[in-house]
Structure formats: C-alpha cells, structure tokens
Amino acid sequence: MQAEEHDPVCGMKVDPSRAASSLEYQGATVYFCSKGCAAKFRAASEKYAQAKPDAAPTHPPAKAESHGEYT
After folding, report:
1. Would you list the DSSP string of 4-61?
2. Residue range 29-50: average pLDDT?
3. Rounded to the nearest 10 degrees, how much is the dihedral formed by the CA atoms of 45, 51, 34, 13?
C-alpha cells in the first residue's frame, strides 16, 4: 500500500490505489476522494493547490458555556 495522500479540496485522507480520481498538476499526481472534489479542483486549482490540509484552524474552538450544576 502506498502512503496516504490528502485530497486538496476537502482534506480527507486518500489511499492512492483506491482514489476516486486523480490528475497531474505541476508535475505531481493529486488524488481525490470523489469525482466532485476533482471537479472543484479543476475549476479552481490555484485556490486548492495553496491550501494546507493539516493547517491549524484560523480561530480557536468556541468554549462551551457552563449553565450551572444540576443536582
């Protein structure tokens, strides 16, 4: 089995041997979890090629409010 890749559109891990679609982009093979993600990439490849799937979120997760303790 090859190492897993990340779908640049949705960030999902993709096994290259089982990818729904793939294409060559700037000399590298890009793998996709679905044909829909591949279509989005073809339509806006520059946008998705710059995205980092493992990047930290741009904002911290919201804290849950405490509404007291029920007994």
Report:
1. PEE-TTT--EE-GGG-SEEEEETTEEEEESSHHHHHHHHHSHHHHHH--TTPPPSSPP
2. 93
3. 150
